[in-house]
Specification:
single chain; mainly beta; 45% strand; 4-stranded antiparallel sheet
Length: 137
């Protein structure tokens, strides 16, 4: 007769949030302070969640295609997104607004990353290019 062992688990917490996206999520990113979480989806939206409460704080609209990637600036005030619409957008996380759009890519944008100063943004695309964008002040 086999004995069933009870799993010894550590004390960890998890939560489930209804993402409220109508299509799959492609990318998720914690804010620099780990209090917020961004989700990027094929439904063309980006959602901002409070990690402690799991509440959807904001939905960002503006891309005309799938949102494939997101990245936070080091100060947590802005984030960038890349999309199948061939654009890179810079967003003000607190105001919920798009502050700048780059249109240089000729195909969908799969990756974005801020430099440590927050003054430059790198993006990569299916057009086989890597671009370094100088951010407006």
């Amino acid at each position: 007769r086999r004995r069933r062992r009870r799993r010894q688990g550590g004390s960890h917490a998890s939560w489930f949030a209804s993402l409220a996206h109508s299509k799959p999520v492609r990318c998720i990113q914690f804010s620099p302070d780990s209090n917020l979480l961004l989700t990027a989806s094929d439904d063309g939206t980006i959602k901002l969640f409070d990690v402690k409460t799991a509440h959807n704080l904001q939905t960002f609209l503006g891309h005309k295609g799938w949102v494939l990637t997101v990245a936070w600036s080091s100060d947590g005030e802005h984030f960038a997104s890349g999309s199948s619409d061939k654009t890179v957008k810079i967003w003000n996380a607190k105001e919920g607004s798009c502050v700048h759009t780059f249109h240089e890519h000729k195909d969908q944008v799969w990756g974005v990353a801020f430099d440590a100063t927050g003054r430059k943004l790198a993006s990569v695309s299916d057009d086989m290019s890597l671009r370094i964008h100088e951010l407006p002040q």
